## 1
Amino acid sequence: MNDILLINPRFAARHAMAMAEAKRVAETHGEKNQSLDDIADWYRSRYRSRQRVTITASGIAIIHVYGFLGSKFDPIYNAVGLVTDYEILKHEFDSVLNNPQVQDIVFDIESGGGYAQGAPSLASHILANRGKKPIYTYSDSMICSAAYFIGCSADTIIASVDASSGSIGTRMTTWDYSKMMEQAGYTAHEWQATGADLKSAGSPYHAPTEAEKEFIQSSIDRTNEGFQNHVLAARPDIDLEVFRAGHYEGEHAIDLGLVDIILDRSELEETIIAMR
């Protein structure tokens, strides 16, 4: 199911407003026959956005993980830098992994997560390449849900004292408009092939049947099991309390095994160089 999410609800609500604003800007400027690049430049000059991979003079590659995570987004969202595409992350990671000028790799994360589809393969790819170069995750904001799925694949996780980490869980929202439609005088009739009783699972035009509830719940649980198994493979000593999907800061995050080091961003580069 493509609607299964690995996302922190607080982040989702906040970021949805930014994405709606980007869409409004695109539509307004599109009416003026401006190109996608022009719209992106205008937006990036006024709002925060995702940066492309950067390499410091000391040989540290910074891969920026910002905003809503997923794949095959509307081009405007990628252009203005409000989202981070899993495939772009994989491409940037492989690029710096094979760059002889790069000594260390840092995933600089400011994200509460995103879509489940695409996260497991990227996370597994990063984990499989441990040992080739030191890989770090850093956040001074939020590293939650799908962002933690990716970030925990690093050798070392570093966070500021007030960064939120965790939200290791899976969720999905379905809507039931049937009562509203009934009050308005509408009745939906949904037809499906004989024996295909799960074809309309998740439809907003009827209350879910018990079989549909069981099917959707099992899909969410399978995705969540994969998430938990990856976290355990990457961080075997993590406290199982984190699988309740809470998010934590500071020393609490350290105690639970979500984070290894508490550090201010200003000290990050010096610390990484000292750890070589």
## 2
Amino acid sequence: MLQNNINSYQEITLLPSQEINLNFLMSKIFGSLHRLFVKNQMNGVINNGISFPEYDLENKTLGSKIRVFFDSVESCEKMNLKEYLKVFDDYIHITKRRNIPSNVEYAVFRRVQLKGNKYKLARRYSKRNNVSYNDALELYSKYEQKTCSLPYIKLNSSSNGNPYIIFIEKVDSTNHGNSFNTFGLSSNSGVPIFK
């Protein structure tokens, strides 16, 4: 079991309007959090995980809340969510830092990546293996792209502007810790789940 150092959180509630829908707002806030995590990482380590308290697999939605977890008061102050997300003041509400309640359960929020379509895979294979595109396409002729029914967020790459999708899966877990990727997600570090 991983050592759990997470002891507090802040909750961001999205306030969509007629001009800005929930999915667009979630994309903007999640993208901003990603940039903040990249900026605040220490030697490639990110101690701040996130959760989606209203995650709903049946309706394929992440909901309207994001919790950001901290391992110390200093970490929370360094992140300074209120100031960093100030541009969204009219569309979000951020709580003050709160302690995590006792007797919580844990869940992992992890990114699920799908392989590309057969044309993209064939192009990549062709370039990497010095074979013609047509030969590579023949190798993938029976490939069927999988679909995904998980909730997702659409983002744009900060390096090239290309759109991409982050599928997010919630898995109950007994593991908890503080080792997350630059999206605040992890394949093995659970975060507290509570009402």
